[in-house]
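Input structure tokens:
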């Protein structure tokens, strides 16, 4: 159900960016950006360093170019980000859609002129670069140089890079936009009422099985009607990536994601293997317990997220959700709670469900000289409170890292999800403290287990699905049934025998945006959850100095490797046992639920 009007849901205020799409400041900034990029290209193309100049002079020149480059990135980010945020709350508005599309085309054309910069930096010899980075003026950028250096074997000529960049608007980005608009404008009939996909999916949390079944069948029927389009989009996304990978000499589809995440493939393999080996100890076991609690031989597809019997489903009003999350952060760190409050006081959150608004939730970092914004679709459920805590974790991370500037603040997805999942854990611990009896504790414990299964087990099954789809696509175009079969195979493996998959379950892959927007993103959730489990274990054992070390971790943004960031906590993600320790918290909670049950 939607929130009652008595507890008004916030809509964000974008005036910190621009007053309106047609505002003079937006147009002025766009023109200034064009000039800045023109001047930058004229000054530095094929002349980042001055030949035979003293090293000190080139250090100053390179530092000046980096500062200018960061200013350009922030300007582009502000213009592009504003167009995105203005669009996502009403993708069915033709005016907003046109403004968004036109802005992206302009930004693409402008940014094309600075592609040369990182390419030419990578053409510098190791010897020259080492001398430059030994100077204190450039030392802080060492991590950024190391990061772009990783892409050197995969870079193409300036001309080809520009072609790839230009074509992105009519290839990958175009299919992303079509997917978003299709999902955002999809309507589902529930008891004769037209509901958005987001609202319809909320019925899967109903205590009444007839409501859950009705919603499941209605949603999947609508997905089935659109499955030819979603199949075509998925085929195109896979093929587009395959073409890029071939040109860039990536050996396997997820390799570029690992590079972007600054993580070694063997670390991801260790995570995936640990989770798969624990399917039986986690999801399989939990769903068997849940089927017993619900008094069923097995769970149906629509029962997976059903509440426990006699669970009170009282709506959590927005102001109460706000207080719960702020209090949870405040108990952990007053300073972090102050950052959280800024999101509410500054109207940096859009939580109201609206026609044409994109589904799900995200925290948009915007630029390091502005502030982040959070989008969600709040419906008063406990999971919505956890989603709020999750996105605010991202927001805190983005605010703390912003002092580093755009080149160093950008955090790999794996570590970015750490902050969000840690926020969820704090909120869960706060809620569990406030339980009044064993039944309430049981309900909350089961809910947390489900969240962790959805974050770890489910996301790894998504990752396996993507791997199989992208690999299969190399052999030729996939039919809807080809993709459906891969989906059902990975779902059955992860969910286990206690869930009987309905014949319509096979269409559920088609509404998941990560497969389209950010291929292979999903393992970052599992990485973050297992990492948080280990971090929280350290926190519970010894809280002295933990908050400072944790805040430092977030404030480091993307300036340090995960191994260096975790060293103060005596944690090492390259150790295979690290993942088993993270998963053990999930199995331990399932043990507790069995005892209560």
């Amino acid at each position: 159900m939607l929130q009652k009007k008595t507890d008004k849901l916030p809509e964000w205020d974008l005036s910190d960016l621009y007053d309106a799409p047609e505002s003079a400041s937006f147009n002025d900034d766009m023109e200034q950006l064009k000039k800045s990029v023109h001047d930058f290209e004229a000054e530095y193309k094929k002349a980042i360093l001055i030949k035979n100049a003293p090293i000190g002079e080139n250090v100053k020149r390179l530092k000046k170019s980096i500062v200018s480059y960061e200013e350009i990135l922030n300007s582009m980010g502000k213009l592009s980000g504003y167009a995105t945020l203005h669009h996502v709350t009403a993708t069915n508005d033709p005016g907003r859609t046109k403004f968004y599309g036109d802005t992206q085309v302009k930004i693409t054309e402008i940014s094309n002129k600075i592609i040369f910069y990182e390419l030419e930096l990578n053409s510098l010899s190791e010897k020259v670069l080492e001398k430059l980075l030994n100077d204190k003026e450039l030392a802080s950028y060492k991590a950024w140089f190391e990061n772009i250096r990783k892409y050197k074997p995969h870079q193409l000529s300036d001309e080809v890079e520009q072609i790839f960049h230009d074509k992105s608007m009519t290839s990958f980005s175009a299919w992303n936009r079509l997917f978003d608009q299709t999902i955002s404008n999809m309507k589902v009939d529930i008891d004769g009422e037209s509901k958005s996909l987001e609202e319809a999916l909320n019925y899967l949390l109903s205590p009444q099985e007839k409501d859950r079944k009705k919603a499941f069948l209605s949603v999947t029927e609508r997905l089935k009607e659109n499955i030819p389009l979603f199949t075509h989009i998925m085929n195109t996304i896979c093929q587009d990536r395959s073409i890029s990978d071939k040109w860039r000499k990536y050996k396997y589809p997820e390799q570029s994601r690992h590079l972007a995440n600054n993580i070694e493939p063997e670390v991801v393999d260790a995570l995936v293997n640990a989770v798969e080996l624990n399917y039986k100890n986690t999801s399989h076991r939990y769903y068997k317990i849940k089927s017993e609690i619900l008094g069923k031989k097995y769970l149906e597809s629509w029962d997976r997220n059903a509440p426990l019997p006699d669970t009170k489903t009282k709506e959590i009003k927005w102001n109460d959700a706000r207080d719960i999350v702020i209090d949870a952060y405040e108990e952990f760190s007053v300073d972090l709670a102050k950052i959280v409050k800024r999101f509410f006081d500054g109207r940096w959150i859009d939580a109201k469900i609206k026609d044409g608004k994109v589904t799900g939730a995200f925290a948009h970092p915007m630029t390091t000289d502005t502030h982040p914004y959070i989008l969600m679709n709040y419906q008063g459920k406990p999971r919505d409170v956890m989603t709020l805590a999750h996105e605010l974790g991202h927001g805190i991370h983005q605010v703390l890292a912003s002092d580093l500037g755009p080149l160093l603040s950008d955090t790999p997805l794996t570590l970015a999800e750490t902050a969000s999942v840690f926020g969820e854990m704090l909120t869960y611990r706060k809620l569990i403290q406030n339980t009044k009896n064993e039944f309430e504790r049981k309900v909350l414990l089961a809910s947390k287990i489900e969240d962790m299964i959805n974050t770890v087990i489910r996301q790894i099954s998504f990752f396996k699905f993507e791997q199989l789809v992208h690999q299969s696509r190399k052999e030729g175009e996939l039919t809807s049934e080809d993709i459906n079969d891969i989906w059902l195979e990975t779902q059955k493996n992860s969910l286990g025998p206690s869930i009987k998959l309905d014949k319509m379950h096979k269409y559920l892959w088609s509404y998941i945006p990560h497969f389209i927007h950010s291929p292979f993103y999903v393992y970052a959730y599992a990485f973050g959850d297992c990492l948080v489990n280990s971090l929280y274990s350290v926190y519970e054992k010894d809280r002295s100095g933990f908050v400072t070390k944790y805040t430092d971790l977030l404030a480091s943004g993307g300036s340090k490797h995960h191994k260096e960031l975790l060293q103060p906590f005596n944690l090492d993600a390259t150790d295979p046992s690290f993942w088993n320790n993270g998963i053990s918290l999930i199995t331990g909670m399932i043990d507790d639920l069995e005892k209560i049950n």
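The two ends are 30 Å apart (CA to CA). Residues 464 and 595 are 33 Å apart (CA to CA).
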